[in-house]
User: Fold DUF4293 family protein from Pontibacter mangrovi.
Amino acid sequence: MIQRIQTVFLALMAIALISMLFLPLWSKTDPATGETLVLSAWNLKSYFLTEAGEPGKVGTIAQQGTIAIGMLAIAAAVLAVYEIFQYKSRLNQMKLGLLNTLLIMATLGAMLYYAYFVGNDLIQVEGKGTYEAGFYMPLLALVLNSLANRFIKRDEDLVRSVDRLR
Assistant:
């Protein structure tokens, strides 16, 4: 049934992963030059900040593609939507939930790789940078995925207990 609580959690998880595609994930600013390196789901760009703190002209660091982050997030969101419609097979839903956990962890791993290894090498400044709003979306998706899996398992346990009584 589509009106179950795990459907809400899976839908919110898909929304969180899709919103991550449009939000900045991580940034680091060089205070000497005012150049800011921003990581998004699709690229790693540098900007020079204006007096108002807004991104101005393009920085000196070459843009790098980070398409792996975006593709992993899209795959996890599509899998969450597919998992919603597998409500007749709870065991299948639990397997898809486990696969989705792996995809979200891979997304987090790719984000941390680009932030700590690629981004830190491009701007040699003390500190690790700032986590932006998009960085927390996969973490929220992990929590929502675990909640959905817990309720799917509860439904499966309920069905098995009723079958035992027959």
About this structure: The chain has one domain: 5-164. Helices lie at 5-20, 67-84, 90-122, 137-165.
